[in-house]
């Protein structure tokens, strides 16, 4: 097998490491490795893969745990396809006869899926989509924080004000209501102080 023939590099990604297996079209294993995902480990992995000029990376979970490394590969001009975890799990069971997981068996099953399956979704380097995803995540996070704070506020007001406060309490209304509160218990004093801050 020459270095010019197409290979699939199956990757089992984690936060701090990535295990790869390089597979030819006839499912011959040409290479394996485990690399760190820090700058040096990533460079070593890409350098190792450059011995195969016609390569495509099959990365499990490109929209989840594999996103961080798939994005770096795309930015470096590499071709990347997303391997859904369900497909690689099925391939692992069929290839090994059992479902036991190791990083090496996961990388092998991901490479098998990348080699055998046509129609895996290729990733594209879409900066605008990435920015929108970050903004949407931030908006959702702010909404979650707001909901949590309002729930805490209502729980504390229930302890400080007989009957609590109405559901649609604005910040200005909460401030007016808190000005009338005179805590009678030891627990109520720090609660009122926290709410006023």
Architecture overview:
This is Transposase IS110-like N-terminal domain-containing protein. It holds the Pfam family DEDD_Tnp_IS110. The chain is an alpha/beta fold. It has two domains: 119 residues, 2-Layer Sandwich (Nucleotidyltransferase, domain 5), CATH 3.30.420.10; 68 residues, no CATH class. It is 50% helix and 17% strand. It has seven helices and five strands, in the order βββαβαβααααα. A five-stranded mixed β-sheet has the order 3-2-1-4-5. A hairpin with a 3-residue loop joins strand 1 and strand 2. Helix 3 crosses helix 4 and helix 5 crosses helix 7. The model has no long low-confidence stretch (mean pLDDT 83).
* Count of DSSP H/I helices: 7
| CATH fold-level topology of the largest domain | Nucleotidyltransferase, domain 5
CATH uppermost class of the largest domain: Alpha Beta
How much is the radius of gyration in Å?
26 Å
Strand content: 15-25%
CATH architecture of the largest domain: 2-Layer Sandwich
| Alpha-beta content class | alpha/beta
Query: Biggest β-sheet: count, sense, barrel?
Result: 5 strands, mixed
The CATH homologous superfamily of the largest domain corresponds to: Ribonuclease H-like superfamily/Ribonuclease H
Q: Walk across the major sheet and give the strand order.
A: 3-2-1-4-5
Give the rounded overall mean pLDDT.
83
GO biological process, one term: DNA transposition
InterPro entries: Transp_IS110-like_N, Transpos_IS110
Organism: Paractinoplanes toevensis
GO molecular function, one term: transposase activity
């Amino acid at each position: 097998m020459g270095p010019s023939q197409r290979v699939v590099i199956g990757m089992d990604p984690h936060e701090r490491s990535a295990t790869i297996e390089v597979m030819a079209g006839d499912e011959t294993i040409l290479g394996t490795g485990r690399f760190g995902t820090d700058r040096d480990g990533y460079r070593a992995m890409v350098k190792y893969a450059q011995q195969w000029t016609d390569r495509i990376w099959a990365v499990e979970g490109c929209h989840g745990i594999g996103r961080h490394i798939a994005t770096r590969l795309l930015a470096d001009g590499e071709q990347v396809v997303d391997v859904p975890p369900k497909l690689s799990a099925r391939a692992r069971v069929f290839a090994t006869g059992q479902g036991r997981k190791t990083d090496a068996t996961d990388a092998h099953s991901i490479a098998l899926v990348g080699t055998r399956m046509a129609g895996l979704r290729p990733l594209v380097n879409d900066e605008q989509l990435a920015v929108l995803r970050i903004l949407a995540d931030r908006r959702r996070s702010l909404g979650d924080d707001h909901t949590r704070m309002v729930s805490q506020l209502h729980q504390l007001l229930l302890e400080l004000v007989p009957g609590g406060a109405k559901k649609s309490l604005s910040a200005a209304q909460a401030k007016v209501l808190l000005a009338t509160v005179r805590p009678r218990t030891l627990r109520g004093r720090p609660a009122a102080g926290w709410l006023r801050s």
